[in-house]
Amino acid sequence: MAYITLSEWNRRQARPRCMETLRRAARGGHFFPPAIFEGREYLVDENAEKLTRNNTFHPSRNVHPALLSRIKHGAPEEKP
């Protein structure tokens, strides 16, 4: 996983966007995997995707139901 600057990522896109728009998206967590703020600029994975309203990342939908149950109710007690 190689990280590149947000401006380099923008240049590689088919339709480059305004840098301020991309900075707002990075601050708002609209990249997957998330952008990293390093020094004075954002770094993104070279294969990162900018999420849109139709393409939203919901981590809770990707978690197994048994895991959610253990998180909410605790691990089941073992019987002796």
Chain-wise SSE layout:
Elements (H helix, E strand, L loop, with lengths): L2 E3 H6 L7 H9 L3 E2 L3 E3 L2 E5 L3 E2 L14 H9 L7
Antiparallel strand pairs: 1-4, 2-5, 3-4
Word description of this protein:
30% of the residues lie in helices and 19% in strands. By secondary structure, the protein is α+β, with helices and mostly antiparallel strands. The strands form 2 sheets. A 3-stranded antiparallel β-sheet has the order 1-4-3. A two-stranded antiparallel sheet has the order 2-5. The chain is elongated.
Averaging pLDDT over every residue, what do you get? Answer: 85
| CATH structural fold name | Multidrug-efflux Transporter Regulator, Chain: A, Domain 2
Largest sheet: 3 strands, antiparallel
Question: Which architecture does the CATH hierarchy give at level 2?
Answer: Orthogonal Bundle
- Morphology: elongated
Helix content: 25-40%
Quick gist of this model?
The protein is of the alpha+beta class and 80 residues long. It is built from three helices and five strands, in the order E-H-H-E-E-E-E-H.
